[in-house]
Amino acid sequence: MLYIATDPRACFRGAIRSPLTSDRYEDRLKLVLTQMGIEGETVEEKAKNFVARAKEDPQWAAATIWSYLQRQKERAERGEISYSTLPNYWKPLKLLCEMNDVAINWKRITRGLPRGRKYGLDRAPTKDEIRQLLNYPDRRIKPIVLIMASSGIRVGAWDYLRWGDIQPIERDGKIVAAKLTVYRGEPEQYVTFITPEAYQAVKEWMDFRAQHGEKITSNSWVMRNLWDTSEENGAALPKKLKSTGVKRLIERALWAQGLRKQLEGGKRRHDFAADQGFRKFFKSQCEKSMKSIHVEMLMGHSLGLGDSYYRPTEEELLESYLKAVPDLTIIEQVEKQPIEDINELKRRVAELERWKELEVDKRLKEVWEWSLKLVKTLQTILPNYIKALDKLDEETKRKVIEAWKPLMELNPLAEKSLEDAKQKPIEEHLK
Length: 431
Fold this sequence. Notes:
With 431 residues, this protein is mainly alpha-helical. It has 3 domains: 8-110; 127-328, hpI Integrase, Chain A (Orthogonal Bundle); 342-429. Helices cover 56% and strands 5% of the residues. It has helices at residues 8-14, 19-35, 43-56, 58-77, 87-99, 106-110, 127-134, 141-151, 196-211, 243-256, 276-286, 292-298, 306-309, 314-322, 325-328, 342-390, 394-410, 412-423, 426-429; strands at 166-171, 174-182, 190-194. A 3-stranded antiparallel beta sheet has the order 1-2-3.
């Protein structure tokens, strides 16, 4: 048998692409193995001891895991944990077993576990709450929050984000947005945008670093550690701030600004998540003025078959995003115009003109058909009309002819019918 590694923990971590997810899975794995009573001081030792005994005695492994999950199920029934968190207790174990050739019938073990909601009941932060968060005295919080709120990126994207991944977009000498390349070089790479105020915030942050001795290039990490600003060239040796550090910074800011308080009895979640809340804010604001499919693409969501058949250009996505910029703007007051783009205005005016012409043509057609029917009806009584006309006095005859004129203006056939009737002898009309 071919083993890809002798360390079960190494096999476990090697199956996870994202460093952030890998750390979370490993922390959860350590907790689960500890609660199951597996011996060992470190997660490496616990994983090695569990895998070794599980291979020797698969029935012991299955029984131990089943008993452990039943205890978690009872905790969920008592309200100590939510049903939706139960998979967090067996998924790390399942991955550890699969990556180390430990055969477990997971379908049988997990069959009786209840399913919880696949979505949370937390909300997105309001603009006022985000403004309050921006007052936290750390220069990094402003670009972090504004970028996340206006682009919808996940917190894990900070592990890949470099200065060269942010490109300003100008129109008529004014920055209207900035292009953001997320997960550059990875299979999950995609493009989204940030607002002008978000770009301005991150530009000021990068300029501040340059003023204190850091050499800024396109490969510079957007987020880095702090330094002693009193020292000359104190920023010369930057160290990337990982996504875990970004999340901790946001959480510290939430508590310091009074946006986090101790949960009351029975509550397990705050009103909005520390990082995922900005993603919800982005989606809810963009849905007001953008196509839902464009919002999903800017959030990096897969469209299934749509990934292959629907591929709008970056320019089309940008045009759609610009409509949402006023709703995504936090600090600056941007007046939302009914129509932001002059080309869009011209298109709508042309469309209105076209519909106006169609409506006029429709009305003219209706009048024409009505007058034609009337003329045909009158043509059947013209002989009697002409005969009676000759018997009238001049004044009455003039009034009758005047009454005929509006019909002649509507349809030339009416005028022609009258002239023809006048030229023919009355006897011919009476035949």
